[in-house]
Structures are given as C-alpha cells and as structure tokens.
Hints:
10 helices, homodimer, 0% strand, DNA-binding, mainly alpha
Amino acid sequence: MTPAKATPKAEETGLKILEAALELFRKEGFDSATMRDIAQKAGVATGAAYYYYPSKEAIVMDFYERSCAEMQPKIAAALEEARGLEGRLRELIRVKLAHFAPNRSVLRALLRNGADPKHPLSPFGAQTKEIRDIDIAWFRRILVDCGIRISRDLEPRLPGVLWFFQMGVIFFWLIDESPHQGRTIRLLELASKAITTLIRLSGLPPMRPLRKTALQLMEIVTEGRS
Amino acid sequence: MTPAKATPKAEETGLKILEAALELFRKEGFDSATMRDIAQKAGVATGAAYYYYPSKEAIVMDFYERSCAEMQPKIAAALEEARGLEGRLRELIRVKLAHFAPNRSVLRALLRNGADPKHPLSPFGAQTKEIRDIDIAWFRRILVDCGIRISRDLEPRLPGVLWFFQMGVIFFWLIDESPHQGRTIRLLELASKAITTLIRLSGLPPMRPLRKTALQLMEIVTEGRS
DNA sequence: ATTCTTTCATGAACGCGTTCAAAAATATCT
DNA sequence: AGATATTTTTGAACGCGTTCATGAAAGAAT
C-alpha cells in the first residue's frame, strides 16, 4: 500500500505507478511486465515503485483491495434485485466475476500464492482479514435475510463456508479457459442451487449426524483462526 | 527429468544434482537454496544443473515422481493390512503423508503452482497425468474391493473424486503447522469416515436427485479432460 | 531566510534463475 | 589409430525483482 503519511504529491505518484502497472499487467501479463517497464511508464525511476509498494505482487494486492472496496455498492445493488438465497448467492458471486473480468490475468498472480496463508499476499492470510470479514458479512446477511431456518450450530460457520465456496468459484474462474468462462457460469448456477438445497436439508432431523460430522470437519480446518 | 539418452556417467551426475538439491531444500528451504549452491554441492558448474533439469522447480517435480514410484509397494502393503473402505482410504493417504514427511518443505514448492493446471509442474497438469492415473487406479481398486454397491453413474467418477480429496488433504498437510501436523491426521480420520458414509448413502433411492446434481457438477469441473 | 528533519526520488548494484557460446570429454566411424 | 560427430561441462552473461547509499524537495523550526 501507499505509505501511511502521504502528501497529495506522493498519493498521485503512487496512483500513477498502480495504473501503469495494471495497464502493463493487462496487456502483457504479470510476469512479462517488468518493474522497469512499470516505473518507466509511470515516469519515475526504477526504485521508486518500491517506495510505494514493497513488492511487485503487492501492486496486485492493492488492486485486489481497491476492487473489493469498489465492489461494495455493486454488491448491494445486486442483492436488491435478486430474491432468495440461491439467486442472491449466485448474483453476489457473479458481480465479483464481472468486476474482475477485465483483469482476470492480473488476479492470476494472486492465485499463485493463494493457497499458502502464511504468504502475505494470500486471500486466506492475516493481511487480508479485513477484506475477508467484510465479504463474509455479506454472506451472513443473505443467509439471515433469506428466511431459511438454519440450525444454531451451523449458523456461525455457514457464512465462512459460503465465502470459501466463493473463493473456489473465483479460482476455478481464473483457470477456466472455456469461451467467456462459460463453465464457471454453469458451475456457479448449479452449485448455488445445490448449496441452497443442502442448507435447506441441513435443518431436517435425519440430517443431524451428518451435520455434526460436517461441523467437526469445519472445526478442524478452521482451528487456530480468529 | 534426466535426458533421454543417458550414459551411466550422466545418470550419476544427474543423481548427484538431485541429491544435493534435496539436501539443500530440506536444510534451508526451496527458496534459500540457490542453483549455484546446488551445483557446487554436487561438484559441477552452475549451468550443469540445467543440462539435467529444465528448471529449479523441475528438480522438485522429479522428486515428486520418484516418490510416487517408491510409494507403490508401501501402498500395496498398507492396503493389505487395512480393511474396509474407510480404513483403506485413510491408510492409503497416511502412507503418502508419512513418505513425504521428511520433505514437507520441499513439496511446498509444488503447492505454489499447484493450482494452475497449465503450469508444467502441477499435480493437475498434463505432464503429471501418468502419476495421476496410477494414483487414481488405487482408489478405484479400494472402491471395487470394499464391496459397497456404487451406482453405475457414480462409479466412473468416484475414483477421481477420492484422488482429489487426497490432494486436498496433502495441500492441507503442507500448510498445517500444528504439532506433528495433528490437525491433518484428525481431518483425515474424520473425513475418511464421512466420505465412506456418504458413499454408502449415495446409493439410496432418496439420494438420487442429490447424486444427479453432484454428478452434473463433476461433469462441469472435469469438462475437457482426457 | 536559515537550518534541520522528514518525505520522496534516483539509478547503480546485488543475488537470483536461467541462457548460451564455447570447450572438454566421450562415443562412433573408417 | 585418427577423424568426426555427439554428449557433457563450463562459467560468463542476461534479465529480472529487489535493495541501498545518495541526494533532491518539501515542510517545520529557529
């Protein structure tokens, strides 16, 4: 991120670097765009970028964070239009894919270290907790609003699970090379329906043992997280 | 891999490089061990390693391939001892974890690009198909041998699903920092039981619509694969 | 206005993975 | 054996991300 104490001048330079970087990332991919290219395009010296960003990947991270902020109103709007858990789940994720679409190749740089939570630039890491919590709050919201009765034990876990599902869809989308990422769209539609059904069923008495097992699994996986 | 036409001499040099690399990877991690270090430790020039391996990561890949080959008899032995789908599933994966244990940090280098099937060094990529198929055959084997009736539509898909589950466990294990990776062990035990239960239930008539949906999801995900 | 301090900018230099032209070692042929 | 092709080895060089000593700009303090 841009330094804490930023004069307007510095703020502007930081933005110039970010924009130059994104443009190059989009045009020739993350790896091919060199820091020297980026700095030159931004009209600064090679080392200047490192005054604003600790690493090349941090630029992508900044983009990711800004994107998430920009998306908030779009998400709110989409949830106004859509009805029901299935529709809202689908549209919430669809909004994200649509927003990221022009920068699909850029985001792929995040996927690279996405699996390792210890890596600073991971959607699962500590450094992205703020974004994650905001995201998860949306899922909590649509779960509450949809009116489906959710058992007390599952309720606190479910938003996180849906967020995880969303991440899975985004990852799949990033590697999906079908035309217009059509496979991802079909996956999203079918999975949203299936998940909604499962959530409905999860409250039923005969499902109790299965649900308890699932909860235990979630506990193990999320063990040692705030 | 070592070149196609390998004289005994070259074979030996290749092995020296592999062993030097693994030793350094284990001692100081994949990133800290430089190719110059590796070459020096192997007693060759810096560039020599590139005659035997196209890249640094390719060394890890070679290790992965060799490990999988070495594991075959261990897997066979483990499946002799264990009974039932749950036990065999658990032990099959446990053997792998045990075998990889001394080189956990080495394997993490594979995890890095593991998500992207287009990357040559990915467990999901085309280049590792052979290994994958052998692995999947084991899962098919224990499914057939366990005697649980599996519906005809699910049967061809299930081995791949179990393989995918195994990959998930391994990934989790690689990032699991709990003492002795105890969380992974608990996850494996509980998940093996749960999966076995689910497979048992999947054949029941009321499960039909859910199973059909799951199958559709699998079809979308595996679309365009041999 | 003058110092002093903090912020911002520079480009050379470092360490790394990787490539490459060239040489050495080895195999193959006559 | 010598001549020739092939495989193996070399270490310098390249391009990259990143770091760093150095200096310029911009405020703050006197």
